[in-house]
């Protein structure tokens, strides 16, 4: 007691020091810190522990019970063990079940019942517990106890289907059909899943209760929940298509064909057009096919194909095609193929309404197989998709929809009034201030001419020229008036045309040719003069050639020569000189050869300063051909002396960025006339000759050595 009061003196000081500062234990110092040779991982430790768990322990020694006292003692010890386990963890249901099964093995049914009841108080939602409890009662032939347990189970947990299956099976095995039916009825009030309804139906069919099974099917599909209302409100339980099909097949299996057909018809009416399913119509059609009602089958397939989207009707198309191949004719097979393609085109134009190629294919298909009203409807849908951008490249495909529409109305439907309306609507739609299509105007005018309505045709073409003049429109209008032999109108149109496009050489030529045909050469010559006087022309060489040919046809050779001289004042092209020389040769007079040779002389002098040496070579070759045919030996020698020498040269190339791109070889021409005037070229020729002589002398020196080697060998 005195010691507990606390130490004094030195001992008291040590105690206070220990209390104020905690003593740190000494740690053994590791001398060798190198890693061990054999490393042990945590994974290896766990694996070894798991392997040792599987080692078989020796079985406990068998205990032989010889009298009642030992048996009671054994029971007491076992019960104490089970109760201890339950007390340690009441929620482990397996302990309760083992305890009850042990009591059941000792035929202690009352004790086992008590254990199950205690377990249900702990966890009444455990399905296994209810099943083991009921199985124990059934195993021991306690039927009423088992019924009581099943009733409690389905009342407590009505959504556990296993309880209902076991209960109905027990009643059926006991031969209590009415009791089993009553349990099924209680189950159906909970509107269970499909398999439960099928179990109930199969149960009734096992006892040949077809009418009851039909009633269950009716409830299975549509369940009348609010019977107190004047008009019962139907609550849909399982309205899937497959359930309607099963119901109909049930009726068909029992040879109630009228009832089966009625079920299919009700299903079609029930789902309507908003929730159509191809499987229902395929099953309906196959049913009618089995009944040999082929027309009904055809109607069903066509009704479904007209209303179900194409991507959802692949199986329907397949079955319809098979049916037509089996029972239909060629026309029926073609109809199904056309229907399939129509669905395909419909999907394409729905996905992209401005896909005009798809519209063309669709219209081609519709025109070949359907009536005029349907074709018109598709055309109207197609032309309603106007290109969103007012650019001609976007309208080029679209405008052919209108053209095809008009041609269909005229040629196929024979409706001239509607054709005129189509053309007029198209013309009003096109934004002529930005662009136009001459084809539409010309087709409209040609249509009016076919209808013998010339004033309307002229009015249309006149309007087109006034609104949006184009070369094609002028040409088409002029061609029309030419066919009608209205030459005064043609002259006026040509005047308008040339005011619109004065650079168009073809128009000038055609106008002059028209006047030539009409015999008015003065007007034709005046037109040509106006044409060559224009400051800008698209093909002036064609115009000059046409004018020259015109004068040659009129045998006005002096005027032709004047034209050539005027043309040569504008251009020194080699083809003009050659053409001039050939004209003089073909004039057919005595001085034609001298005139032709004189032209070649002038041309050669004029082209000495020409940069294009190939053109000068072309002229000399033409001159040589002329001399070979009509010239003398002197003239032939002279022209041969004028022919150039063809030599190969190299020149340096430069890339686009100015860097060196290497060398290129090309051919150049050296004319004798130019050589005489340039002494440098003479020097170059002499140097080449000297080099050639040097090479020949070196070759001559090498030949004797070669002969000596050969003799020694």
From TrEMBL:
The keyword Repeat applies. It comes from the Eukaryota. InterPro entries: HAT, HAT_Syf1_CNRKL1_C, Syf1-like, TPR-like_helical_dom_sf. GO terms for cellular component: nuclear speck; post-mRNA release spliceosomal complex; precatalytic spliceosome; Prp19 complex; U2-type catalytic step 2 spliceosome. It is found in: Nucleus speckle. It comes from Circaetus pectoralis (black-chested snake-eagle). Residues 698-713 have a biased composition (Acidic residues). Residues 550-616 form a coiled coil. Keywords: Coiled coil, mRNA processing, mRNA splicing, Nucleus, Phosphoprotein, Repeat, Spliceosome. Residues 94-392, 414-565 form the Pre-mRNA-splicing factor Syf1/CRNKL1-like C-terminal HAT-repeats domain. Belongs to the crooked-neck family. Residues 1-12 have a biased composition (Gly residues). Involved in pre-mRNA splicing process. As a component of the minor spliceosome, involved in the splicing of U12-type introns in pre-mRNAs. This is Crooked neck-like protein 1. GO terms for biological process: spliceosomal complex assembly.
